[in-house]
Structures are given as C-alpha cells and as structure tokens.
Amino acid sequence: MANGPTIALIAAAGSGSRMGGDTPKQYLSVGGMPILRRSVQAFLNHPEVDAVYVVINPGYRRLYDQAIEGLDLPEPIIGGGTRQESVRRALEHLERLPNPPYKVLIHDAARPFVGARIISDVVHGLDEKNAIIPALPVRDTLKRVQFQAVTATVERADLWQAQTPQGFRFYEILEAHRIAAAQGKQFTDDAAINENVDIVVHTVLGAESNFKITTQEDLEKARQLVAQRGETRVGNGFDVHRYLPVENRVTGQVMICGVGVPSIYAVEAHSDGDVGLHALVDALLGTIGAGDIGDHFPPTDTRWKNADSSMFLAHAARMVRDQGGIIGNVDVTLMCETPKITPHKEAMRDRIASILQIAPQRVSVKATTTEKLGFLGRGEGIAAQATATVTLYGELDEPVAA
Question: Going along 157-282, which residue ranges are E strands?
C-alpha cells in the first residue's frame, strides 16, 4: 500500500438479459450461494486486497442485500446505463475517498470462480506494469460468420481470450474512462479503454474455471462444477447445563432448541442456556474446523450475558455459508427427565429450520431419558447431543498451461 490501497470493484449493475428470467444472473444461486457473493468473497478473503466495492442497479437493492448479508462491505455504488458508465461512476466514487487506491481491480460479478492465484498475479503485475489482465490462448478454430454462413477462417495464433479481474493503476484508468466518455466511444472491456489512450496492456495466465456466466448453459456448467467439487463433512456437538433449585426460577421456562418450555427449574448458564442450540452450534463449527461456541462467544464476555442462543446458531450457519458450504441436515437429541420434550418437538424443529434457513425436513429433534441413571436421571440437569452434515465446495482455480 505504498502509494495507496488496492481496491476491487465488482461490476454487478447489469440486468443479465441474455440469461432470461426476472432475476439478474449475479443474484442466481450456484451451490447454495448467490453468484455475486462468491465473486465478492474471492476478493474479501484475499490478503492483498484492501477493500471491495460493488456497483449495482438500485432497482435490485433487495436482491443485493440478501446476496451479501453478513459481509463487511461499504455501501454499494450506483451504476449507470452501461457497464462502461457504471465502472466510470465507480472509479469517480473511489477518487473521492480520503485515501484513493493506487491499484484497482475491475471484476465481472458473473465470474464467481476467480481464484487467489489469478488475483495475486494481477496485483503483483501492477508493481511493474500499468495494466494487467488474465487471459487464455484461444484453442478452437475461429470462423467469421455472416447470416449463418462462414466467410473466413481467422488465424488464432496470437489470439487470447480476456478475463477479469483486470488490474490498472488507478488514476490512469480513471483518466482513460473519462476520455472514452468525452469521445462517445463504447468498449467491451476496461483493457480496451486503456488501449484507446495507448497504454500497453499486459497479460497473466487465466484459468478455464474463471469463465463468465452469461447463458443458461453457463449456469448449468457452473452448478456442475460446484457439485463435482463437493466434500461432505460431519460435525458433532455436546452440551450440558445444570438445573438451579426451584427457588431460583426466574421465568418459569427453559429455552430448548429456540422454544420456551415450561419448567419448574432454571438452568445455570451465561447466555439463555439453550442446550440444544449450543450443541448444534458446536456441530456446525466442527464441519468447518472453526473451534467451538466458547471460542466465538466466550462466557467471560458480558455481551453474551442472557443472550438469545439463536444468534449463536445463525452466526455458525453464516460461517458455513461463507466457506461455500450447504447444510445438509441436522439432528439433535435432548436428554433429560424434565421437562417433557415431546409436546414441543415440532415447534423446536421449525425454529431450528428457520434459524438455519433450511427446510424443516432437514431437521430432526429427538428426546430420551437415562432411565433414572446419573445426574440426568436424578433430574439435576439437561444435556444435548447434535450432529450436522455440510457439503463444502473446493477451490476451482486451476492453472491452465498455455
């Protein structure tokens, strides 16, 4: 950051008309995650990118908010009538920042599989060059066609297919965009705008997986790629809480799996003491190797005093989704002599499904006793065991030899 930060601009203001349908392609789901979110996270998670800004069509603000929920992003930038105008507006927005960027990476929202290697190559390339784009050599024979008839074969020896992110020295690409706008010229990518002012654009090797989702066929290809890389993980969680004496009862109920259950006891706990949700949080965290509930919500932190445990579970679910995971199913077994769980199982199931944003059919809540054995059998507390399955999707950024 010697001369300013490195900022990524995600161009997401298009309507995706070639895809068809009412929802722009960047807001469609691939592997349980919106395409835009996948693209944004590639840059948010990259150590050499200091900030990420998204350029949007304000008419789709609700879809945008849903797609990036929970991500640490600045307010989106409002785009224009064309991609070129949208990017220029975004660059002018960045110019007004207290610390404008030195390097800017401009990326198509509809390229969700850009990997860390490509981003690094572009960022590092800008140390020596003014403009860097990832590209792949054209391998197929090219034909020029008019009215469905071939008019010529095009020599492919020096032809490369451009990808994004396209990286530039910030003030140079900003000035190039302003010149293009003043000239009334339209270009198909930002590299061509630099070429228009005689700035040489250099290349780094792209990747076959870094393709742009434009058609329904592309969308199906993306979904198949993700499905092929799926890895099923299983996590387990266990939690127990001691009952306090009857005279310590405060609410006349205990929280179990997000539901208030009438009880003559209260539980000893820092938060609301929801043993079922606590076990489930640990199970989900276990699928992504993210420690346990105490690592994220330590009982020594006063912020979590009497906290609603549904907040903890929603946090764990977001962590899973942020790693490209899809929750397959969850199974909770409650162990206690009292209170009686059976009358509340369906409500618990529905509440867990709502917090995790999955179908109730993917949630199981069971209850058992210990046949009067041990501290549970003596009615001294309540315990829960939980299991979760999650499908995680691997890295798609594979180098392709020239």
Answer: 160-162, 166-169, 202-205, 230-244, 253-256, 259-262, 266-267
- In 170-215, which residue ranges form alpha helices assigned H by DSSP? 170-183, 190-195
From CA 365, how far away is CA 363, in angstroms rounded?
Answer: 7
Q: Are 276 and 365 in contact (CB under 8 A)?
A: yes
Domain interval for residue 143: 6-228
* CA pair distance 187, 240, nearest whole angstrom: 63
Are the beta carbons of 334 and 368 closer than 8 angstroms? Answer: yes
For residue 165, say if its preceding peptide bond is cis, omega within 30 degrees of 0.
yes
How many beta carbons lie within 10 A of that of residue 59, not counting itself?
10
Instruction: Tell me the residue type at 238.
Output: F
Tell me if residue 203 falls in helix, strand or coil: strand
Amino acid identity of residue 328, one-letter, is G
If DSSP codes are grouped into helix, strand and coil, which group holds residue 27?
helix
Read off the pLDDT of residues 126-160 as tens digits, 9 standing for 90 and up: 999 999 999 999 988 989 999 999 999 988 888 99
Copy the structure tokens of residue 165. Answer: 């992110």
The model's confidence at residue 395, banded by pLDDT at 50, 70 and 90, is: low
Nearest in space to 281 (alpha carbons), one of 251, 231, 306, 318 = 318
CATH of the domain at 281: 3.30.1330.50
Q: Give the three-state DSSP class for 318.
A: helix
The answer to whether residues 31 and 81 belong to one domain is: yes
User: Rounded to 5 degrees, what are φ and ψ at 80?
Assistant: -115, -160
Identity (one letter) of the amino acid at 387? T
In 194-325, DSSP assigns E strands to 202-205, 230-244, 253-256, 259-262, 266-267
Residue with tokens 């780094």: 204
Q: Are residues 153 and 90 in the same domain?
A: yes
Q: What is the largest CA-CA distance in the chain?
A: 91
| Same domain membership, residue 386 and residue 317 | yes
For residue range 339-361, what is the model confidence (pLDDT) as tens digits?
Answer: 999 999 999 999 999 999 888 99
What is the spatial distance between Cα 211 and Cα 219, in angstroms, rounded to a whole number?
10
- 257: which 2 tokens? 């799996």
pLDDT at residue number 401: 37
